[in-house]
Amino acid sequence: MNVSRGARALAQWLLLGGVVGGVCGVASAVFLYLLDEATRFREAHPWLVYALPLVGLVLGAVYGKWGAPIRGGNNLVLDAVHEGDAQVPLRMAPMVLVGTVLTHLFGGSAGREGTAVQMGGSLADAVARRFRVSADTRRELLAAGIAGGFGSVFGTPVAGAVFGLEVVVVGRLGYEALLPALVASVVGDLVTRGLGIEHTVYPVPGALPLTAWVLAKWLVFAVAVAVVAVAFVELTHGLKKVSEKRVPWLPVRMALGGVAVVALWKLAGTDAYLGLGVPGILRAFEDPALPMSAFAWKLVFTAVTLGAGFLGGEVTPLFFIGAALGNVLARLLGLPVDLGAAVGLAALFAAAANTPLALSIMAVELLGASVLPHVVIVATVAYLLTGHRGIYPAQRIARLKHGGPLLRRLVPLRELPGEEAAGREPPGPTGPGSGG
Fold this sequence. Notes:
Layout: H1 2-44, H2 52-66, H3 74-82, H4 92-105, H5 113-131, H6 135-154, H7 157-166, E1 169-170, H8 178-194, H9 212-246, H10 250-268, H11 278-284, H12 294-307, H13 315-333, H14 337-353, H15 356-367, H16 374-385, E2 396-397, E3 411-412, H17 419-422
Parallel strand pairs: 1-2
Antiparallel strand pairs: 2-3
Helix pairs in contact: 1-4, 1-5, 1-6, 1-8, 2-10, 3-6, 4-5, 5-6, 6-7, 6-8, 7-8, 7-15, 9-12, 9-13, 9-14, 9-16, 10-12, 11-13, 12-13, 13-14, 14-15, 14-16, 15-16
């Protein structure tokens, strides 16, 4: 009987996870193709950056009229995993795709994981409604949609599967969604690659034996990564909160954000901090003369872009910030520059997104096994030091990072603004809550 039940579950998840992965793979392929074309066109016509305020005005007007149900972005997807009555509208996929491509076309500093996760969640919820699955199965399909979007857009299927589980509840993996997440991520990656998309190839660092002295250096490295992760999270959320309060009308808020990005661009005197910034990431692996302020410039560019309401994600900009920071720290601490950039690339996003396991795996998929165990050590320590905050305020937490008993319910990070508040046990029914 158990074998029969297991076979049925396997068949169900191969079907549903495969469908979700297939649609995520196609969506990611279209998105990455358009994003690459938009980046090439902007680099050939840098004057387009001057139009970013106007684009912000138009995008803000469109989202103000038709985008209210999807304005939560990644947080809407995470809320939907936990709250059965929260839906992810299908319109999210095309709107966030077009909005992100326009953000990059005109020079906004943003990433692509947010778009991939939102498209994945939107398409997965559509599949769940089409097949009329149960509430529990729908939550697992939403996790699969996150995994399928993330894995296919970066070409990291194993990390995508783990990210789809790890990002939902801080410090806890929901293994009930492991199979659909893995199927969706692997299928999504295969489909995206099969449609001709080629992912960025990163340099593979040389191996470095872990000694007590090297470990001490990594601990210092992790503290710096945690500080920068906190700065990014607080600045991005702070700018968003202040701008929403002082400029309630979204079109004007985004237009002013565009003006700020243009001003930063002229002040920096370089195009290096616009868009994804992939050339800057690659440079961090090999240039011992990389400006020490490069990570700070990219941090501010990205925080202003996303804080104003432009669309995209945080991963690739955080890769830039982390790699550039790692380059600087490696030079100061006497570590190999390429290994410092590699560890910084993964650990900074791990700390900011509370996903140390997924990003450690992602580092291996992107950069090779030579990054172990260094990236795991730095990512884990930085994750702990960032406290109860992150780029996704809708992430739930079941137990505080520093230990202690289970909380009485799964609590969104947005309800834990600091360590002091996090230490208070929130009210609610005893139990793990609704789906992780």
